[in-house]
Amino acid sequence: MPAMKTLKSSWILLRQTKREPLCRLTVMENPNQTIGILAAAGDMPVILSKQLQAAGYSTHIIAIEKMADAVLPMADAVIRLGALKKIISSFHDVGCRHMIMTGKFIRPSLMQIRPDLTGAKLALKALSESDNNALQLISDFLAGYDIEMADLQSLLPHIYATAGVMAGKKPTKKQDASIQKALTVLAALGDCDVGQAVVVQTDRILAIEAAEGTNAMISRARQYQSLDLLPPIMVKTSKLGQNKRLDPPVIGTETLAIAAEHGITMIAIEAGGVILADRDQCLEEAKRLGISLIGVSANIAPSDGVKT
Question: I want to staple 182 with a disulfide (CB 3.0 to 4.6 A). Which of 218, 228, 235, 241 is the partner?
Fold first, then answer.
């Protein structure tokens, strides 16, 4: 397993004045909830914190030591990843019982984690697993300490992509056929826990996201583009059958800028499945860069339409 592997996921903790089953947890039920954030690298922890505060919530942020960056000035605590007992105790101390992790998670080595006695067994198992399986192991482990993963879509539904044209132009028939080809490929790969995005040009798949992440995949796809064809399209969805509480895919302004730099003029993302980091800013940036941003359905059977 590579030591540097990006897991984009979101952890958030909710403090409830009254303990309730997870199935009853919604944004509007308790406007006095405190939401704690366990933050990794990048801007997403900051963006989520501001959005939650705008929705009337207070936040309690724990930054992962030597991994979190942008969120550090607003963090309430900084704790190393391997100090699970301290992390769990910190959330318990403020009454948090539901969580989601947010930010770019760089998969470290066991030596870098330095797990305590509480997390040693979990670390050994999780490092050898695929992304989905590792996240599920973490979720199950924390449930044993009375901390459940919350559903970000029920907390901030407005940050997810919506169906149809969000910016730019509607896909032509040829572009729509390319999008459908990409969706079919992603559906076929979902059970293999391979990445959430592909770059397609007409009927040809240029790149499939692997451990390097979406932005690096876009850069890699550039060398395979043909100048004689329509510009390539990036398509991103959640993985087939994945627990969407654990690893919701995200598109942000950085990805839009890299896509534009590498000749991509259209991005199709799963409506209700992919998060737009700072939605208004993303839509403005897409328009400025001349990128059409399209919300699509990912409900395609893996066997539909794959050409060999």
Answer: 235
The packing angle between helices 253-261 and 279-289, to 10°, is 10
H helix or E strand, kind and range, residue 8: strand 6-9
Collect all residues with Cβ–Cβ distance below 8 Å to 107 and sequence separation of at least 6.
1, 2, 3, 4, 5, 6, 7, 127
The residues pairing with 250 across neighbouring beta strands, listed in sequence order, are: 275
CATH number of 6-155: 3.40.50.20
* Sequence spans of domains, the chain: 6-155, 160-296
109 CB-near residues (< 8 Å, 6+ apart): 3, 127
Do 6-155 and 160-296 fold alike per CATH? no
Q: Are 48 and 150 in contact (CB under 8 A)?
A: no
d(CA 262, CA 59): 37
Instruction: Give per-10-residue mean pLDDT for the chain (308 aa).
Output: 41 38 37 76 91 82 93 94 91 84 83 86 81 82 85 88 96 97 90 86 95 93 95 93 79 96 97 93 96 89 39
Q: Which residues contact 103 (CB under 8 A, 6 or more apart)?
A: 8, 10, 39, 40, 41, 42, 44, 45, 64, 67, 68, 71
